[in-house]
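Figure 2 data, in text form.
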Amino acid sequence: MSQHRKRPEKQTRGQTRGLIAGAVAVTVAAGVGLGLWAGNDGAPAGSAQSQAQSPSGGRPEGSAAHSRTPSPTPSPTRSYPLSTTPRTIPSVRAHTPARGPGWRPAAGLRVVVNDTDLADEGRLLAGELGLTYAGQKDDVRAGDVRLTLNDDEGADPESYGMTVRGGRVVISGADDAGVFYGTRTLKQEVHGGGTAPEGVVRDEPAEPVRGFFLDIARKPFTAGWIEDRVRELGDLKFNRLQLHFSDDQGFRIESDSHPEIVSRTHLTKAQVRRIVALAAQRHIAVVPEIDSPGHLGAVIAAHPELQLRSAAGSAPQGAVDISEPASAKIVDDLLNEYAPLFPGADWHLGGDEYRALTVSSPATTYPQLATAARKAYGPGATVADLTTGWLNARADTVRGHGKTPEAWNDGFFRDTSVRPAADIRVAYWTGKEIGARQPVAYLSAGRKVVNFNDEFLYYVLGEPQTFVYPTGRRIYEQWTPRVVRGTTAVSSKYDAQILGGSFAVWCDFPNAQTQDQVAAGIRMPLRATVQKLWDPEKPALTWTQFKALGDRLG
């Protein structure tokens, strides 16, 4: 989920806004003859080119002719066509058109704010557009971009309004996250010399979770590559980056509590802090995942005494023996160590593919697990009960740090006496596991779900098993957040429980693609995914138009 900063109330805010509004009114009333940019044709207002392209030959539509006498007599007033809805990714939810010159960036124009909490957003936008960041100002100048926090406390913190009028821009929201998204819309509108169209945008996301998942355990992506993705995600209004950094093939973040488990190629904590800080500037929460009790091969390599073994002596890959207290201790050590490194609200616990539960008789194959289950939960308890208890205990650990726990859907088992804690969210990715259940089984039980549908949203390097690289077109034309499994949508009555979705890069065959190939391969799928998370309705653009827009915006 996105991170929103608290902002102190200022006693003079109402007075300040009153002064600003008065100044705006006076300046707008004075007219637009300020050397401002024109609309779609890109000619300055009042120029020969703009007059020639005016539908009335340089006169306002329906007005009397103006004589063209030398200065100081005013020059003709430009007539502007009604503006059109801006073309952005994701598309804006609503735009009220108007007539006017629109807005373009130019050297010397200012970005100003009404609250110092918007300094990060103001500086970023000014740097991107070549403007001057002037800080908190009450005066109004031609060409200003003003970022404001309003008092609409009941509004979605990710919503915003943007007004382009009289050669100026005002972006307003109840929270700095919404204001940031408004700056992303403006940045796209003026990309490549474009003009922000006159009128009012009202915009907000349909889904609160708009995520990108990256498996850095199997393939060690560089910090610089991840930072580039953070910038890309921010411009597209994603708000979540999940890092899967522990698996059988590697443990990829520096550890002080257990340095012996860390792979040679890894991110330092300093690098992670820079990634987290960059993401926070762009209102992206970085969600860590240490998958357990399966997928712990890198930990087992350093601690073979934790390896689960069957009665016959076989050792299933990546599975720790959850009947051994030392297994829980090392995982909790890591959860506790990394909690301060990732200040976001969510934590992914994994929970999937514990191989003790993939055999026909877990109690017979792993008698030590059956014995531990009966000891902990009574004579009728099963290995699935013990595994559910493990998940609950790890949830307790991260909950102690103020985190909301999440786990893969195949970490939730049917017909157990021990139930997963009610607040553990379901990351639904597949229906291929043993005892698979439809998404409705989780939704009807009241659980909140994040959509990772592997039919559409899984980019698995090397395309193993039945996986194929997903296409942006298929996501754009066929997928919505309600399509949680396969190609069939669940009922709209579950909309409030489906928190959103996440596009995932898994690196089963890490050398199948380079980092650059991954970036290129996921480019349009990411754009299609966020379009459907921001607005799940049928898009206004065809796929061909949407792809052309994506290519133009870069």
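Caption note: Residues 307 and 551 are 49 Å apart (CA to CA).
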